[in-house]
Amino acid sequence: MNRTGDGRMRRRTFFKVAAGSAAAAALPWAHLVRAAAAGAAAAGQADAGRRPNIVFILADDLGYADVGCYGQQRIKTPSIDRLAAEGMRFTDFYAGGCVCIPSRSCLMQGLHSGHTRHHGSNSHVPLEDSDLTVAEVLRDAGYTTACLGKWALGDDLQGPGAAHKQGWDYYFGEPNQTTVHSYYLPHMWEFDRDGSVSGLPPDKEMRKVPLPGNEGGGRKEYSHDKLAEKALAYLDARAAGLATASPLRAGPKPFFLYVPFTIPHADFEAPSDEPYSREDWPETERIYAAMITRMDADIGRIMARLKERGLDENTLVIFTSDNGPTNGKDHKAAFFSSAGPLRGLKASLYEGGIRVPFVARWPGKVAPGATCRTALAFWDFLPTAAELAGAAAPANLDGISFVPALLGRPQPEHEFLYWESPRQRAVRVGRFKAILSGADLKVEGLYDLAADLGEQTDVASAHADIAQKARAFALAAGSRPAEPALPDAAPRQTKPKAKAEKN
Ligand SMILES: [Ca+2]
Fold first, then answer.
1. Separation of CA 218 and ligand 1 centre (Å)
2. Ligand 1 mean position to 99 CA, how many Å?
3. Cα of 323 to ligand 1 centre, how many Å?
4. CB-based contacts of 480: which residues, under 8 Å, 6+ apart?
5. How far apart (Å, rounded) are the C-alpha atoms in residues 502 and 492?
6. From the CA of 13, how far away is ligand 1's center (Å)?
7. What is the per-residue burial (b if ≥16 Cβ within 10 Å, else e) of 342-373?
8. pLDDT-flagged residues of the chain (< 50)
9. Are strands 425-429 and 417-420 parallel, antiparallel or unpaired?
10. Distance (Å) from CA 364 to ligand 1 centroid
11. Three-state SS for 56?
12. Do the beta carbons of residue 121 and residue 485 sit within 8 Å?
């Protein structure tokens, strides 16, 4: 029996039965859980006023120290820094994996990479209908959902992994994990289940949206800008829904807006290298910095629009990245010290590959300027979102809700955190982190992150008990370790490979 597939079915079945039970009894909107159980629509307008909207912005290959609030000195990120100043900064938050697809798979499903379909591989394996996503959990709890950007978990527009078949009511972007890495796409794709954003008749399938300025190799329409514009349009549409909703009608619903931007993933291209045009840096580094600052400005616009539309006070905004930084053609992660003090880059399970910036702002709920040092990970987002929505978390998740941390209450901790890649496994136990390899999961090294954030000194012999404990967790948590990793799919476009981690 395939443990993962079986587990997925059980989770989905359990959720359908349990959604709406009193999982969120400690929260002020617990009574709405009962309303949701009687029918999500019945919760009506009160929902939008009490359950928070959620905006989750995901950067791509952005390093732990690529933003000012995590130590970046030269790349300007005032909007992200403001999010941190007005909210909470997490020092020990981890991505789901060290490359794009497995990381997003963990984020969407509340599972670590031992239990997702992708494990640690970047192969283009789509989600199946039996996979339960956070979008489905929130939609079933009465939210309206939108994904703008790099979906990456279903390239086939008609297949079961397609975004509109995995819980998203609205989608705009390029779902293909490889194609999306061009910033001058000839077209993008849109799906608007009720037509409320596009103003067009409701869609049943993805609709192609041509970008005429990029036809024939043209470079007039920067794809990222289209995502940012759609994010603002989406907020406008939600605000309009709030304004026109009648207490006699169902809705308005709270919303979940997921914005997986592609910046600063290669290709390194931008309409301008401002505000760095006069810096004496290699051209690609000016572009890299300009891409991040451009995304930051768009995050500022999203925050301003939330405020203008009266949505700001009841919206949790999260910003993070899907994995660590990488070297590329003419780009060196070391140029901006993108990984900061951390060892390793994208594609490595050392901290630089998986520890990411993570900030959360929620006025009146998250204390301004707060810091959370608890070790948490992408698979904690689904149970967190479920709790915020007043829904029961599905069974058999690996994640735990970090709502307590957000609210400044004692945060339960993981017994361990676990990651897979084709070459390594990693386990964090308390302040220790083990790197394992080979079919027998040999402990390559054990590091005391409290004393040695850069993972330079192997303390496995001094802490043999911890090393063995970590190995036992990996053996129990992992996908079949003796089985060879799935091969990565051949990319359709050239993209720079991460430099192999030394040692
Ligand atoms: Ca990535």
1. 26
2. 5
3. 5
4. none
5. 28
6. 31
7. bbbbbbbbbbbbbbbbbbbbbeebbeeebebe
8. 1-49, 248-249, 481-503
9. antiparallel
10. 32
11. strand
12. yes
- Determine the pLDDT at residue 231: 98
Give the distance (Å) from ligand 1 centre to CA of residue 216. 28
Alpha helices in 95-254 (DSSP H): 100-109, 134-140, 223-244
Question: For residue 177, how far is its CA from the centre of ligand 1 (angstroms)?
Answer: 10
Output the CA 409–ligand 1 centroid distance in Å.
32
User: How far is ligand 1, taken at its centre, from the CA of residue 503, in Å?
Assistant: 23
Give me ligand 1 centre to Cα 368, in Å: 29
How far apart CA 360 and CA 494 sit, in angstroms, is 35
- Identify the pLDDT of residue 48: 47
- 267-275 long-range contacts (CB < 8 A, ≥24 apart) are 267/181, 267/182, 267/183, 267/495, 268/328, 268/329, 268/330, 268/331, 269/183, 269/184, 269/219, 270/183, 270/222, 270/294, 271/222, 271/225, 275/76
pLDDT at position 252, please? 75
Which amino acid belongs to residue 170? Answer: Y
Question: What distance in Å separates the CA atoms of residue 377 and residue 92, rounded to the nearest whole number?
Answer: 8
DSSP designation for 325: -
Q: In angstroms, what is the span from residue 338 Cα to ligand 1's centroid? A: 14
Ligand 1 centroid to residue 176 C-alpha, Å: 13
361 CA to middle of ligand 1, Å? 23
Structure tokens belonging to residue 158? 């008609």
CA angle 493, 183, 344 (to 5 degrees): 70
Position 165, amino acid:
K
Helices (H), 309-456: 351-354, 381-388, 403-406
